[in-house]
Design a protein that fits this description.
globular; alpha/beta; Rossmann fold
């Protein structure tokens, strides 16, 4: 099935911010069959409107919206013979929307141990961004329709980060995030965001055909790049799995370190661990 004359079925690599999804997306797109499209959020926010969180559901998909999103995505492909790949965290909150809009798309959900992900997410919550960096990340996919919403969100974050030490919002807005922020520390907010995103994605993936999604634990990819690459390559229907897996062992750095992080205090961890434990246990028992 083609969505139009130019676009082959895509692969969406998603997960919480700092989950390792970008590493996996870059690994996949080392293969010539795929192209990584960076930061296409404004395309996927078409017709989003004003709302309190970034969830999108299947009932939002209309023929017009489907055509506009798929045409915008295909326009970003340099070669129509390649398959579109992106690594938006926001997709983790929109899996029913993705599946309804592109029924034969495949989804890779990347999860990472919270002790590694949360400090890096906390850095995001406390980092002071600039207008130039925000625009540069999204310059290829900026659409006039979404500019006012993007500008408003940036302005709120800019003011909050300078006067309160943390942002009003960072990354995907999970349900009830605004209420949680009002009475919790930034570290607890990052943990709440991690927990909600993982649980929402896993719940929604369970309702999809199993052949169309794959969950990858980033920590296992670092420990066993060949074994995990074989899973990823088979899922992506690569013709030479052994070559892909061998290349992955050279590409994946087992000592991968993201330098920008802010660690919660011991007291904050003591609050965070009970909050996230059930989610961690569920990750450990989920296989696909």
């Amino acid at each position: 099935m083609h969505y139009n004359d130019e676009m082959l079925p895509p692969i969406f690599v998603t997960g919480t911010p700092r989950s390792g999804k970008s590493v996996i997306a870059n690994l996949i797109t080392r293969e010539q069959e795929f192209q990584l499209v960076p930061e296409p959020l404004m395309i996927w926010d078409m017709d989003l409107g004003a709302r309190d969180d970034d969830r999108r559901g299947a009932l939002e998909v209309t023929p017009s919206l489907r055509d506009r999103i798929t045409n915008a995505c295909s326009a970003l492909l340099e070669n129509p013979e390649q398959r579109y790949v992106d690594d938006l965290s926001y997709h983790a909150l929109r899996i029913p929307f993705l599946h309804a809009l592109m029924p034969d798309a495949k989804i890779i959900h990347v999860v990472r141990e919270p002790e590694y992900a949360i400090p890096e997410m906390l850095y995001g919550w406390t980092y002071r961004d600039t207008v130039g960096r925000a625009i540069t990340r999204r310059r290829k996919s900026i659409r006039l329709q979404g500019l006012p919403r993007m500008a408003l969100r940036f302005a709120r974050n800019y003011i909050s980060s300078r006067f309160q030490g943390s942002r009003k919002t960072w990354g995907p807005r999970v349900p009830n995030l605004a209420q949680f922020i009002s009475s919790h520390s930034p570290a607890e907010v990052a943990a709440f965001q991690w927990k909600c995103m993982v649980e929402i994605a896993m719940n929604d993936l369970a309702d999809m055909p199993s052949k169309q999604w794959l969950q990858v634990r980033f920590d296992e990819l670092l420990e066993d790049p060949m074994g995990q690459a074989l899973r990823i390559g088979e899922f992506c229907e690569l013709p030479d799995l052994q070559k892909f897996a061998k290349d992955a062992t050279n590409f994946i750095d087992p000592n991968f370190v993201f330098e920008k992080k802010v660690y919660p205090t011991d007291d904050e961890w003591s609050t965070i661990h009970p909050m996230i434990e059930s989610t961690r246990s569920r990750i450990a028992t989920t296989t696909n």
